[in-house]
Amino acid sequence: MAEIGRVLTAMVTPFTEEGEVNYPQARKLAKSLLASGSDGLVIGGTTGEAPAMSDEERLKLFAEVKDAIGDSGAVVAGTTDNNTYRSIELSKEAEAAGVDAILMTVPAYNKPTMGGLVKHFISIAEAVSIPGILYNVPTRTALNMTAATTLKLAEVPNIVGVKEAVAMPTRSRTLSKARRKASTSGRAMTTRRSR
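Above: the chain sequence. Below: its structure as tokens.
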């Protein structure tokens, strides 16, 4: 599995005055962010305003950014939706477009059980061969994925990291402790908290 880097910048999606995705500007921005020290870019996540784009726009944006930066950085594509099957299709299409990894966000609105989350994320991860990064952002989704659920999902071979947008010291300690233990056994998972 390819290395996706340590500094992944969540890229904004440039739009035209008419509300269309500005692909030429996105290409320029992607190159600029990598030139400024990013190892890779998260495209179509919260910062990238994924809900404001159609599936076609998201997929074209993933392909345009990957084409612009080539192998000089990783593209992590925000491909998930509340609908598991739609998430699988977007993830497969993003992989076919050449992205390096997918960002799998906890579904908003539906508020599945933790068991439902496990099934959702495993279904998506097993549908692709590229790495997947979990994204726990309860202020946006109204659902906080438990540390136990995160650790269960860490057992899935191509789920390689988690973006935590939660300020819970106990949770951070639990995940960090598990990460240290896993890294001594050769299976490390990234546990970084965003602010």
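The radius of gyration is 16 Å.
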